[in-house]
Amino acid sequence: MSLGTSTRTSRLSTTASLALLASLVVSFLAASAVPTPLYAVYQAEWGFSPITTTVVFGVYAVAVLVALLALGRLSDHVGRKPVLLAGLLGQVVSMVVFATAAGVPELLAARVIQGVATGAALGAIGAALLDLDKVRGSVANSVAPGAGTASGALLSGLVVQFLPAPTYLVYLVAIGVFALQTVGVLLIGETVTRRAGARRSLVPQLALPRSARRAVLGAAPALFAVWALAGFYGALGPSIVHQVSGSSSIVLGGLSLFVLAGVAAVAVYVLREADPHGVMALGVLALVAGVATTLAAIDLGSTVLFFLGTAVAGVGFGSGFQGGIRTVIPLLQAHERAGVLSVLYVVSYLGMGVPAVVAGFLVVHGGGLLPTSYEYGVAVMALALLALTVVVRRPEREPAPQPVHASAASGRLCTQGVQ
Q1: Counting beta carbons within 10 angstroms of the beta carbon of residue 80, is it exposed (0 to 12), middle (13 to 18) or buried (19 or more)?
Q2: Which residues contact 293 (CB under 8 A, 6 or more apart)?
Q3: Where residue 74 sits, what CATH number does that domain have?
Q4: Is the pLDDT of residue 407 over 70?
């Protein structure tokens, strides 16, 4: 059976369905950021080292990556809804494990479950957004990750700072959100029909359609660089803020990731209609400027300058990510979306996870927190400048796939470029 528009009727409007799907990205990535302000609490209670913190952070990225490779194309065959429901169930299970954790093994288990659930669902959510509306879906695909990461870090910090039982309450709230979203997913219509090949789709592969190969290879260095920046703030941000400011405030520690991701989301929305290659170039330049300012702030011990640099880096994060996604999406047929989006997320999570774990090792066995921060920052800037050379040497535009209009015989979606 070929991929096509579903005949199952949605009980929600297209706009409501788009909002629900975008909220899934927000809640999944917010949940991934929730433990960040809590690492200091866990570290004080269980006495583990900074390298353990970055391993707990990095194992999530590895789990997401593995799930993307194995499950990223599954929704093209079994439908979007079953994959979304399975992802929501996995998130609930991970929240239960977090809430009942008694040590590092439970934290690692929770992060693995959470990573698999997120990785399984991200490709399906992104593809479903594009199935419903290519223009609005493209914007949501770029805005929602930043909004989710920002809200998760800030809300978790507020809960930890001001409410009782922080290591329980924040996860119980997340379970309630996921339960409501499960009801919403049951109400939306399926956007694709089932087709053969589900088992074969579980075999990990990074195959790309010919029409998108150049675009993906051009976007990959920028995506890796901007997500390496996200890994920097996710793994080391709170510790650096405490070192620079001299404050032990958990809210202030989580504020660095909030500023980075929040500004990124705003940048994505503001630049949503600009040329994607120009947006990607702007992102790379802003990333370099922002990281340089942040490193200067660490050297000077200036909290204000640190957050200013973080905001500029946030423009780079959002612009680089959006530009990379938008240079690829117009080249994809409907049945290629989930798989290619999964490839882009694989590149992103490699960028986020691998450098962060290396940084944790260097904090313990190298020169300590601040020297490692300098080394990490310089490495991110070098990656960004490498990405800039790829963007500047922009290849000739590849022809977009020819529109194929849906019909009763083919059941395939009409594909048009996303502006």
Answers
A1: buried
A2: 305, 308, 309, 312, 313
A3: 1.20.1250.20
A4: no
- What is the chain's mean pLDDT, rounded? 80
In which domain, by residue range, is 217 found? 14-392
Query: Are the CB atoms for 235 and 363 separated by under 8 Å?
Result: no
Task: List the beta strands (DSSP E) in 115-182.
Answer: none
Q: Which stretch, 23-32, 91-100, 222-231, has highest mean pLDDT? A: 91-100
**Domains contained in the chain, number:** 1
Sole residue written with tokens 């929602």 = 144
pLDDT of residue 1: 38
pLDDT in tens, 115-130: 999 988 887 888 888 8
Sign of the Cα torsion 405, 406, 410, 413 reads positive
Place of tokens 């260095």: 221
Question: What DSSP designation does 37 have?
Answer: G
The phi and psi torsions of 205 (rounded to 5 degrees) equal: -160, 155
Would you say 387 and 399 are in contact if contact means Cβ atoms under 8 Å apart?
A: no
